[in-house]
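Researcher: Structure prediction, please.
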Amino acid sequence: MWKGTLSFGLVSVPVKLYTAVTGRTVHFHQLHSADGGRIRQRRVCSIDGEEVPLQEIVKGYEIAPERYVVIDDAELAGLAPKATQTIEIDDFVELAEIDPIYFDQPYYIVPDRGGMRPYRLLLAAMRATGKVALARVVLRSRERLVAVHPRDDVLLMSTMNYADEINPTGELQELDGQEQAEVGERELDVAQRLIESLAVPFEIDRYKDGYRDAVLGLIERKAAGEEIVSEPQPAVETLQAPDLMSALEASLQRARARSDEDGSADAKAKPRKRAPAKTPKRAPAKTPKRAPAKSP
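Model: Predicted structure follows.
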């Protein structure tokens, strides 16, 4: 999707960018139910109700209700950052110092022709130091702040949000008065034990988009001509408890029960796997090998 150079100090590496993440959301088109025709969007003026040709549409920034400043394309073009086709590294920082809220879209950086040796050098040096590079690059006529760091045997570049793009938590009125909602030590202890009982090693493959899979399955069945009968969704079971402490203790008990069930299932599964292997090993030992020696 992009081709240029990755520059740090006086070293320039010819590179290419590939999208590292592809959204898998299921998208639908709007159709006319009577004949299946696609629904098209029309550009209609809110004042006279007439459809407006594309060449008569301009950009406007709203500075007050129904008050706009009109900006034409030539004016914007004069302000656009120069497309240098360079990922210019400015600084190296610790990954732990970057709040995850600043990360946006990831891309793979791969070496272009003649760039393998300096690419491998930068990759190895960054892996050895554990540093993350902060750089600037122009993507789609916009200068972006990006973070570059090693991932496996490739450099990963993530576009970042600027500080003024993050909404401050102080504007969340729902958090007002949280100082008065004190948490007791016993409640905190049970909550911590509940978290520990639910803690597992992180494995991203364990988590699936169940809704997307169900929608794609529905599409396949309908495309194959299957008649679909919609069934009502079962009611969601909710944990009922008279107070916070009771809810915590009941949750902890449920988590322990689930853990015990998983452990029992594993324990039952293991002997079944080992049983076939034990039988052939013991069989030869039971066979009397001295029988032939008794004949003389």
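Model: Helices lie at 73-79, 116-129, 185-198, 210-223, 244-286.
Researcher: Thanks, that helps.
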